[in-house]
Amino acid sequence: MLFKNLNKRLTIVTTLILTFYMGLFNCQNFSGIVKISGKITNPNGNKISIIKRGFKKEIPLNEYGEFSDTLEITAGNYSFYDYRESSEMYLEPGFNLEITLDTKEFDETIRYVGIGSRPNNYLANYFMFKEKNTVGFEKMTNQEYFDKELINYERSRSLLNTSGIENENFIINQQQTIFSDHLFNLFNKIGKDYFQGKTTAIISQYLDKKVDNIDFKNESILQSSSMNKFFNSYFTIGLISENLNCLNIFNNELNEQQKKEIISSLKRKISFYNLNDIESYYQTLRKLISDENSFLPIEEKYQKILNLQKGNISPMFNYPDTNGQYISLASLKGKLVYIDVWATWCGPCKAQIPYLKELEQKYRFKEIEFVSLSIDQVKDAQKWKNMIAKKELKGIQIMADKAWRSSFVKDYVIEGIPRFILLDKKGNIISSNAPRPANFENGSYVLNKELEKMFDSNL
User: For the chain, how long is the longest CA-to-CA vector?
Assistant: First the structure.
């Protein structure tokens, strides 16, 4: 009887304890929680990150490339980043996602299962759709491009409509993204002719109708990355085309933040990658920016680029090699000089190395010097030396003294790498933005025939 009563009391106490802790658990707020786990094959590092403006969560990988964590988030679009490539993802409280991918084919293999998988698999599929169906417009007429882009637009909408996604807000946002991408593509190819009244009536009327439905004064435009991209493209092209309607909207309807975004887009076009139109962008900025102090950096950059035209004397360098011996550009006169500005951390730079070595071997008996100029930080000099040894790099290997702030880098207005420069035997510029050793064609790299022709015609 004693044991029976004792058991009864223990049961009551246990029930009360369990009820208390279950109450505590149920009172916690899990409304902002997302669970995320997965496995990465061939990982590029020991962690991944989930990123959004104002938010970053690093998640470690174990030795098998597996990861697991919970995130306190608000609903929206994020980036899944492995520190080499990234993929857009959509998260909202309550999602429980398992992610798998192989970094050797990052975009082709990323897959989601679990709660929230449908919108994320859609985003992965939409990205691959755009990759595979990007219309190369260089050799197409406006009408050919327009017809092709309309087909892709309808196929993009169909991809969303058949995705099985039930989240109404997500669908609305993606409809806007597809629409913005569509307009961006059209204006990228046809915009200049459209603003100058050179497109056919069918194309002009189609674009008129689409653009008339956009409220450019709506500040939320800048909050959507896809609409913001179209917004900047629309006004950038319209303003350099001297379209009066576009200029009127810019002057009288846009707020200061919107104007600032557009001017920033125009400034980025003062670049080696935009030599054919650089004068138009310069003149447009000259009209829009009245303050001379604000315009001065643009003027200086523009003049630097003009001074780097073919036939002009090249800026000089004098930097140390792996043994600490200084090598100057002046000491290389009498030979063609092909300069590769690179860094050990730069993936696209390293992708060119095998083909640079192949070129060096092919022209080893010719009067040409291959110079690899690293802009790694000086503190990383040993890492630079180790890579030279590991990859058996040939040619002249030197390191700039102040990385991006080095005089040669600033004199050549280098804002991205790899950057290649070709000089003649007198030290004059043949090309301040020379072709890379290899082009990526049909899924693989091949030696750049255009570069070899430049070598041969100047030797």
Answer: 110
Nearest in space to 93 (alpha carbons), one of 110, 116, 112: 116
DSSP category for residue 223: G
Query: The tokens of 418 are what?
Result: 């790899």
Read off the pLDDT of each residue in 89-110 and give the average, rounded to a whole number: 94
State both tokens at 30: 């899990």
Among 413, 421, 425, CA closest to 371: 421
Own/partner pairs for 392-395, CB < 8 Å, 24+ apart?
A: 392/357, 393/353, 393/357, 394/357, 394/360, 394/370, 395/356, 395/360, 395/369, 395/370, 395/371
Cα 10-15-18 angle, rounded to 5 deg: 125
End-to-end CA distance of the chain: 109
* Percentage of residues of the chain with pLDDT beyond 90: 79
DSSP code string of 285-335: HHHH---HHHHHHHHHHHHHHHTTSTTSBPPP-EEEBTTS-EEESGGGTTS
Tell me the pLDDT tens digit for each residue of 265-311: 999 999 988 888 899 999 999 999 999 999 999 999 999 999 998 99
- Please state the φ and ψ torsions of residue 197, each to the nearest 5 degrees: 70, 30
Q: What is the pLDDT of residues 243-255, one digit of tens each?
A: 999 999 999 989 8
Alpha helices in 162-290 (DSSP H): 168-195, 201-212, 225-240, 244-252, 256-268, 278-288
> H or E element: which one contains 103?
none
d(CA 62, CA 84): 18
User: What is the separation of C-alpha 33 from the centre of its chain, rounded to a whole number of angstroms?
Assistant: 29
